[in-house]
Every structure is written in C-alpha cells, then in structure tokens.
Design a protein that fits this description.
Elements: E1 5-8, E2 11-14, E3 22-26, E4 36-37, E5 40-41, E6 45-50, E7 60-64, E8 73-78, E9 85-89, E10 93-94, E11 100-110, E12 122-129, E13 135-140, E14 151-158, E15 165-172, E16 176-189, H1 199-217, H2 227-238, H3 247-256, E17 277-282, E18 285-291, E19 302-306, E20 309-310, H4 311-318, H5 327-337, H6 341-346, E21 355-361, E22 367-373, E23 401-404, E24 418-419
Parallel strand pairs: 22-23
Antiparallel strand pairs: 1-2, 3-16, 4-5, 6-9, 7-8, 8-16, 9-15, 10-15, 11-14, 11-16, 12-13, 12-15, 17-18, 18-24, 19-20, 19-21, 21-22
C-alpha cells in the first residue's frame, strides 16, 4: 500500500489503495423532521446549551410547513431577550478514527442578527467525543446570518484519533429563526484491496482517491489551476510504470500547481531527512545560519554551489516541488530543501541520495567545500527561521570538512548544533 498525503489547515490524511471511493449513506432518524410528538421531533433530543442560572427566556423549537422537502421542517427561533439557547441532537453514532464523513442539510435563515451576540451559531454540526464523552472535535456547516432562501449546506471531515462516537445536531444562538430540513450523513467507504489487484490498479486507485479528497475537503481547489488541466495531469500519471521513480515527484509538482501550501503530497521515505546544517535566504543569497561545531567556521558563509551546481539553478529546480502562494513562502521553505540530499538526488539536483557537497564562500574571500552525509534522521531539527546575527568566521578551515549525523541508536554523543550569535 502506498501512502500519499494531502494536508488541509493541519489535516493529515493517509490514503489507502482503493478502486472507487464510494459515499455510503448512514441512516439518520427522522432526518426530514416529518414526525413529531409532544416533546419535539421524534428521535431527536433537545439539549440545553447556553443557559446561565439567571436566565429564564428560552429559545423555541417547533415544526413548520415551510419545508425544503416533504411537509415539515424544524424551526429554531429566538429574539433579543433570549438567553437560554438549546440545540437538538440525534443519539450517538459509533465512529472510528480515520473515517471520512460528509454532513449535508437544507438550511434557511430568517432575520438572524449576529450583531452584539457573544455566541454565533446558526448551523448543523457533528459533535465528536471520546470514550469518556469528552468533546474532541466539532465540525459545522457555515454559520448563517440575515435572511436566506432554502439552500444546501455541507461539511466534510475526518474522525480524529481517540474518537469513539459522534452526534448530529442543529443549533441557533442568535436572534432570528433557523429552519432545518432534509439532513443526510455519508461515509467515504473505500473498498479493501485484494491480492488480485495489480500494482498499476493500486496506483491508479490512489490517484482517484486524491481527486475525491481534494474535491471533498478543499473549498476552492481549482482557484489557481483549471480543473481540466489538473485531471489531465492525473490521467497522465496513471500510466506511469512502477519503475518510474519520478512519478511521485511529478504528482507532488502537480499538486503544488494548485497554489495552496497546505495541499501537498508527502515525499518518499527518507527523502526529507536533513543534514545538521541550517540555511536561510538573505536577498538572493543562501547563507549558513547554524552548523555542528566541526563546521562552526562556516557560519555566515554564502552557499554558492551544491555538488558543483550553482545554487540558483538548484533553487530553480526546487520551485515545482514547493507549494506557495507568494514568493516569501518559497524563500522560507527552499533553504530547508537544500539540506535534504535524498530529495535533491531524486530531482537530479545532487549526485548522491545520502551525501551532498556544498561550496561555501566565506566573507574572508575563501571558498570551502563541505560534504554532509546523512545518518539517522532522528536528530532534532534546526530552526532556520530566526537566524539572529550572522556569524563572522574566525580561522577558515583548511581542506574539506565532513558533517556526519550520528545515529541516535548508537552510544555516541549527538552532535551539538549552535545557532549563529
């Protein structure tokens, strides 16, 4: 199984291999609010929400014939004197971490006033709790205000780690009225691959699932790249053979063309292991801003080449692999890539997957070659975002230097990394 990752505002999805992703309806009791008794909609529970002890003016919950579908709908209403707001919820549904759901409903707003309100709720939502009924996630459709006609509203989400169950609910905490009708819940149910699946089928299925997740979770996936262009790129990748090691990088480059730094594909294993060296961009230059003690004399030096390739050419080669919406983000991320020999080699920008030679020009006018080799990648990361003052090297080192990561599993001291002072 191949792991391909899409990240949306800190959302990490691990993609299984599958043939066709299918949305499977999850039955909801009285989802159209057609059945009512003396306590309210059948199967739904009214939950006191914001209810200070001193409050006696409660919101109301009734049915209405102003329905989006069928004969009835739910009507939640309150005014400026209301201070005890309640929600309506269905019984808990068992869920499992990693599952993907989509909650939909028809909603209508009548003169909902957000001004001056401490709590702004006018939506349907899914409340996710752990085995101890502690809330760990809350996923809601957009909050409505003012007056709107009936319209479909939806939210898609992935069940987080530690979750045990969730409840579907509707909530209003602002003066006005919220009408709710025709709810539905669906789970994205990927079939489990079998031994009969070929590698090509698994790869093609993974790509199809990327498209499904992208169009499900991203609010505007094709704001910077036409949908047809993206899908053409996906189809071209499907015919890439397994021995084509560049296909994962071409997939990453295609996703980067979407122009969203939160929508990327993970690198192959080992490609992002970094050398014990920190770099940052100053103008058009790449400078060493931190290094292990053995290479402390390089601090403040200007990187002019990577394995003999001009650093400007290497940066240009990295551009397709870094998702960014503005140049500053590329400049923030690119120096970290210069420390990853695995990625540089896969992209044809370095000579070996586990070692890189940097040519560093010191302010004294001396050029120094330093070769960094990758060992264990569990050494703590260097922070190259706040470099502080540039270091002024004292005595330039003579001959090539060797930066080596000491694997953490070995009984050797971990090299100390000193930021420039």
């Amino acid at each position: 199984m191949r792991n391909l990752c899409l990240r949306f505002c800190m959302l990490l999805l691990v993609l299984p291999s599958l043939a066709i992703a299918q949305w499977i309806d999850v039955p909801l009791t009285n989802a159209g609010f057609e059945e009512w008794d003396g306590a309210g909609p059948v199967g739904w529970e009214q939950i006191a929400g914001i209810d200070p002890d001193s409050c006696i003016v409660a919101s109301t919950l009734t049915d209405t014939t102003d329905a989006a579908a069928g004969a009835r709908a739910l009507l939640l209403r309150g005014d400026r004197s209301t201070c005890r707001w309640s929600s309506v919820r269905l019984p808990a549904l068992t869920v499992a971490p990693g599952e993907v759901y989509r909650l939909r409903g028809q909603l209508k707003a009548l003169a909902i006033e957000p001004e001056g309100q401490r709590y702004r709720n006018a939506q349907i939502f899914a409340l996710v709790v752990d085995k101890n009924d502690k809330q760990i996630a809350y996923y809601n459709t957009p909050v409505l205000t003012g007056t709107t006609g009936w319209a479909a509203n939806e939210v898609a989400f992935q069940i987080p780690p530690g979750a045990a169950s969730m409840q579907v609910a509707a909530f209003l905490t602002m003066p006005g009225a919220l009408l709710v009708d025709d709810l539905s819940l669906a789970r994205l149910d990927p079939p489990v691959p079998t031994d009969a699946w070929s590698e090509a089928q698994r790869w093609s299925a993974d790509l199809d699932y990327i498209v499904t997740l992208l169009t499900t979770f991203h609010p505007q996936p094709f704001a910077h790249l036409e949908r047809a262009t993206f899908l053409t790129g996906i189809e071209a990748l499907k015919i890439a053979p397994a021995e084509d090691t560049s296909r994962i990088w071409r997939l990453r480059a295609l996703l980067c063309r979407l122009g969203d730094s939160h929508t990327v594909c993970s690198m192959p294993d080992g490609a992002n292991a970094r050398l014990p060296l920190a770099l940052a961009m100053f103008g058009d230059e790449v400078r060493v801003v931190a290094a292990a003690p053995v290479a402390a004399a390089l601090c403040g030096g200007r990187v002019v080449a990577v394995d003999g390739r001009p650093v400007a050419a290497v940066l240009a080669g990295l551009r397709p692999q870094i998702a960014f919406t503005h140049e500053n983000w590329f400049r923030e991320q690119a120096p970290a890539w210069l420390r990853m020999p695995g990625a540089l080699h896969a992209l044809g920008l370095a000579d070996a997957p586990d070692a890189t030679t940097y040519t560093v020009a010191l302010d004294t006018g001396t050029e120094v070659a330093v070769r960094g080799s990758r060992g264990d990648d569990r050494l703590g990361e260097l922070d190259n975002r706040w470099p502080g003052r540039r270091c002024v090297p004292s005595v330039p080192p003579s001959g090539p230097l060797l930066l080596v990561r000491v694997p953490a599993r070995q009984p050797h001291p971990v090299p100390e990394v000193r930021p420039c002072q």
